[in-house]
Target: Flagellum-specific ATP synthase
Amino acid sequence: MSLSPETIKQHRRERLQERLGRYRQRLDRHESQPLVEGVLRRVVGLTIEAVGCRAPVGSHCRVETADGGFIDAEVVGFSGDSIYLMPTGELAGLVPNARVIPTGKTSRVPVGDGLLGRVLDGTGRPLDGAGPLQTGEEVSMTGRLINPLARQPIDEPLDVGIRTINSLLTVGRGQRMGLFAGSGVGKSVLLGMMTRFTEADVIVVGLIGERGREVNEFVQETLGAEGMRRAVVVATPADNPPLMRLQGAWLSTRIAEHFRDQGRKVLLLMDSLTRFAQAQREVALSIGEPPATKGYPPSVFAKLPQLVERAGNGDQGQGSITAFYTVLVEGDDQNDPVADSARAILDGHVVLSRQIAESGLFPAIDVEASVSRAMTGITDEEQQDLVKRFRQLYSLYRQNQDLISVGAYRRGSDPRLDEAVAYWPRIQQFLRQGMNERVSFEGSLSELQGLLRQPAEGATRQSGIRRDAEPAPAASGQQAKRAYTGAGGQ
Ligand SMILES: Nc1ncnc2c1ncn2[C@@H]1O[C@H](COP(=O)(O)OP(=O)(O)OP(=O)(O)O)[C@@H](O)[C@H]1O
Ligand SMILES: [Mg+2]
Model:
């Protein structure tokens, strides 16, 4: 039986449609936009300009060098037919019209318990010479956004091992704090102390844009073999290109997120947030973004909250990321735009003062200028009363310090100030803490209680500042669970 020409045509059409469908599927599986190789046109500073190249922003390219090798670069912007790239490594050996080959890949992050004990660079490659990473899993650099309504609240205090912070500036699990100070006032040392003393399942440390020497110091001395067992260090020191420094900050945050998503309690420490902002400024300015606030382009102030918001508590069933970011306050100017922006987006700040450090008191925490915004929700009224009283005495003395030190203040003229003066040596003693001394949360509170419950010698009677904090009214829920004994009072 012969088929009619119509039926044959129909069969052909069906076969053709079937083949076309298969081709479409294959096309869909690959990049919808084919990647096209381009050539190098211009290199100014650290910015590489290529033409004829088709690669999306955030993807990676390889640029051929004069000796036939390649350098890795990431697409950071474009204008007309040109794309702008920035190197993630050393920028040397480039020649005009060199090949620029898109790899089609974006940054991936190796994650897993195999990271514990390791030191990585900003791209996630090991720096410690301890062989390849045994992680197995890779995730994208851009984490999952948490619905703000689903985030667990900060409702549990965290013992950070520092007397002043535990008692006067209590930090909650999942809180994001800033450590603000000028250079050389003790940010890194305090961060190191908290690294060793804080209770956490995993510690992720991002050393961003600081001295290369400090990386080894941090790994060997601050963390040591014991601390490294539960830590991951991401190091992108000052000599790394700006893109690498930025990646270091994102990478450490992404690793912390991974452990949090597994339900662990993570401590994320970043030294420093200012260097992250400066790296973003370098990248943004070099691709033509105009400077806005004191030389910083607007994207810096958009990236800071993006980075910081990724820390904090997870949603139900997840763990937490408690984060500490150091912020360099240049020229001790607390109104520096980066410091200002960081102060606004973080959940509290510990300010270190040069004047206090110069007097030899470490950690040089300026209690007056520091605040923990989650404190009222995680402490009971008894502690809040003690803190209020401590702050009153502290401020009163500090406001009159100049008068007192030149001998212009005479005892008896203000009973409240007399009391502050009498308490001052013990206040200083309370604030002082050696680098290797750990003070537990309960210990910190009972020392604070002991300090304020004991009358200071030399105080006149009618001082007006209550000596004994009122007995704690019945605290509710969470807060009532924590009881502590005072050296002097109960
Ligand atoms: N708790 C402490 N006890 C004794 N000395 C301290 C303490 N904290 C800091 N110091 C002293 O202060 C110096 C500077 O501290 P650190 O390196 O932490 O400052 P920094 O603020 O990180 O400086 P930079 O901004 O330059 O990185 C230390 O070398 C040390 O001598
Ligand atoms: Mg430092």
